[in-house]
Amino acid sequence: MFVFILLILSCTISAQNTVGSTCTGFTTNGLANSTFLYYRLYDFRNIYNTRSASTQNSITSKTVTNSSWTNDWYIRNYPRKSSGAPDIPVSFTPRRVSITNSTDKSPYYSTYLTLSSARINESTQEGGEITFDEFNVSYASIRVLGRVKGTPGACAGIFTYLNDTEESDIEMFTRDPANFVHYSNQPSSTGAPDWLPIPGATVNVSMPDGMYWTDWHVHRLDWTPGRSVFFVDDIQRNTTTLQVPVADPPSGVYIDMWGANSTWVGSMPIGGEATFEIQWVELLFNTSVSSPAAPAENQKLCAIGDDKISWGLRLASMCSKSLALWSILVVLIVNY
């Protein structure tokens, strides 16, 4: 029992220190290194049916490691109409968003978030989509540790969206080779009636040698004033100053898995299914209602992505799993 109490205390301290409670801003590395006011980590690696593990590190920083992640993310439930044959409607439904018990042999995670897409019949394909609902976002660094699996004819997306001309995307198509990723700032074409491609609006980029989106990798989009930068595992794969979304009005942040029998995504056979599996989502962002920055003498900027924070995330994940095992052991001892 004494060991169990020590474990609780140590894990509580480590979780709270994952991102320092005194941080007044959060900085990124890379070509468009920036400072953001808000930080969020949604960790799906060891989620149990409890709402007690969420940590509000400070006014601007929060780490969520339990089912309360749905307080900040809206699970979409709506039909998206077809744009015309051969496209079919996409039915976004909560049943395509779930926490999955992992069968992988890993000490670092036992669960993950799954977004799935499945072709139901000739006229319908279901999809899963979540929308960040806590704030409207004006500039962000969005990082997702995920992998994509399944039948051709689906698209895994990580993107910001205001409208069809103010949108920035990371997309992985299950019909593509597993090392191809699409990066876009919309619109990608001139629209009706000619639908001519806009050079540079969409690029198809290979992942670094030996990397495939069927394996776990961190996909990252940095949306900054006048520039979008795209990364895999912190290796820059594309950057553009073309059609960068505006900050005002602000955009939403979306993550999804979908398909529509379209020429863009491809056709999925009836009964087919594909999944976008996610260990965690990390957001650094500003908002349309951001609080004023702290006075210069009181500022403490925290760099996100350094070794200390990465180790803190791993340690917090391991502690979450260890606490669950110790809890079961204590219950067995007491009942015995």
TrEMBL record:
A GO molecular-function annotation: hydrolase activity, hydrolyzing O-glycosyl compounds
UniProt domain GH16: residue ranges: 71-289
Gene3D superfamilies: 2.60.120.200
Entry keyword annotation includes Hydrolase: yes
PROSITE patterns membership: GH16_2
Source organism superkingdom: Eukaryota
GO process annotations (BP): carbohydrate metabolic process
Cross-referenced SUPFAM superfamilies: Concanavalin A-like lectins/glucanases (SSF49899)
Signal peptide: 1-15
Stretches assigned to coiled coil: none
Keywords in alphabetical order: Hydrolase, Signal
Protein name per Swiss-Prot or TrEMBL: Glycoside hydrolase family 16 protein
Source organism: Hyaloscypha variabilis (strain UAMH 11265 / GT02V1 / F)
